[in-house]
Specification:
By secondary structure, this protein is mostly helical. Helix content is 77%, strand content 0%. It has a domain of 62 residues. It is built from 3 helices and no strands.
Amino acid sequence: MITGFLALYIFMLAAFTGYEIISRVPVILHTPLMSGSNFVHGIVLVGAMVALGHAETPVEITIGVIAVLLAAGNVAGGYVVTERMLEMFKTSKPAAGEKK
């Protein structure tokens, strides 16, 4: 019982701390941070696949499949957001000698 409350407390503390840290990041640093978070999400995906590989019961397999799907979506979404953010920094005019 205490373990559940401790896990909930740690989760809430991490969520609040993460929100406060990210909300204070300047706009120019968001793209490098997204690249770093994509790396972390890749590790989460690998961890979900390892957990799924060790699953034995149907409940464990179901949770593992959901974890892999969510982690893969998180990685793909992170790269899409990063690409869109990088597009914002590109110039609209072609450089000298380039064709549009």
